[in-house]
UniProtKB/TrEMBL annotation:
InterPro entries: CoA-bd, CoA_lig_alpha, NAD(P)-bd_dom_sf, SUCC_ACL_C, Succinyl-CoA_synth-like. One of its GO terms (cellular component) is succinate-CoA ligase complex (ADP-forming). This is Succinyl-CoA ligase [ADP-forming] subunit alpha. Residues 4-100 form the CoA-binding domain. It comes from Moorella mulderi DSM 14980. Belongs to the succinate/malate CoA ligase alpha subunit family. One of its GO terms (molecular function) is succinate-CoA ligase (GDP-forming) activity. One of its GO terms (biological process) is tricarboxylic acid cycle. Keywords: Ligase, Nucleotide-binding. Its EC number is 6.2.1.5.
Length: 292
């Protein structure tokens, strides 16, 4: 068990007939994901790995009761694809695209909040409830990296999810749900929003936050913790210790401005909220064992 996604969740793959959609659909199916149908306009009536393809998301909702979507669509069409999923009533959308314009991201986030849906991403690896389902690019088949358990993982960096989860498993623990929020300036879902979900999840007993330089999500999360919004044990690792102020580092959102966003300010805020701070990913497992 975990948050948002389970083996029962009926999923639509938007862009299923493209190279990436086809490749990752096979791996999502192998991970246990309940893929109800795929969508590519003009390709309705075909199949991909045994999954029926339709022309619209609404068709998959009407015929199969779809509840969630994972979107393999290029940047120019990603906003429209996301709006189509939201307008069809889906409440969980994993938006993987890199290069989504900021204005598009703002419109997606605003509309998702209006209709009470979660958009995970953009510019992220996806999410997985380990042992149940995966949406995106999470390599859950690597048993030395991913084992089911009771630790929630939230990350802005996709590659660091794998490294940190491997240290959690090496310490004898496992993961409930891991979520990649993405590194863009306007995320569809914030760290604070995911912490609130993990707070409500009885199966999750602790959380690891994988942050990075830039933005204020980690400081905002610390404020949320200080007022009792999240009370479970937590460990954080913040990447970008050597990043110079005022310079973008890799991710579009990784830039320090207005006195916030540095590794030091994030670590100080989280530490003051009771979070244990790892100086390197390899310390995460040991710190978790001390507090969970």
């Amino acid at each position: 068990m975990g948050i948002l996604l389970s083996k029962e969740t009926r999923v639509v793959v938007q862009g299923i007939t493209g190279n990436e959609g086809t490749f990752w659909t096979e791996r999502m199916l192998a991970a246990g994901t309940n893929i109800a149908g795929g969508v590519t306009p003009g390709k309705g009536g075909t199949q991909v790995h045994g999954v029926p393809v339709y022309n619209t998301v609404q068709e998959v909702v009407e015929k199969h009761g779809a509840e969630a979507s994972v979107i393999f669509v290029p940047p120019p069409f990603a906003k429209d694809a996301t709006f189509e999923a939201l307008e069809a009533g889906l409440k969980l959308i994993v938006l993987l695209v890199d290069g989504l314009p900021v204005q598009d991201a703002l419109e997606v986030r605003t509309y998702a909040r209006e209709v009470g849906a979660y958009v995970i991403g953009p510019n992220n690896p996806g999410m997985a409830t380990i042992g149940e389902a995966m949406l995106g690019f999470i390599p859950v088949w690597l048993s030395y990296v991913y084992q089911p358990g009771n630790i929630g993982v939230i990350a802005r960096s996709g590659s660091l999810i794998n490294e940190v989860c491997s240290h959690i498993v090496a310490a004898g623990m496992g993961i409930s749900t891991c979520i990649g929020l993405g590194g863009d300036p306007v995320p569809g879902t914030t760290l604070t929003e995911v912490l609130a979900l993990f707070q409500q999840d009885e199966h999750t007993q602790g959380v690891v936050i994988i942050g990075e330089v830039g933005g204020s999500m980690e400081e905002d999360a610390a404020d949320f913790m200080k007022v009792g919004g999240f009370t479970k044990p937590a460990v954080a690792f913040i990447a970008g210790r050597s990043a110079p102020p005022g310079k973008k580092m890799g991710h579009a959102g990784a830039i320090m401005t207005l006195g916030r966003g540095s590794v030091q300010s994030k670590e100080s805020a989280l530490s003051a909220a009771g979070v244990k701070i790892a100086q390197r990913p390899s310390e995460v497992g040991r710190l978790l064992k001390d507090i969970v």
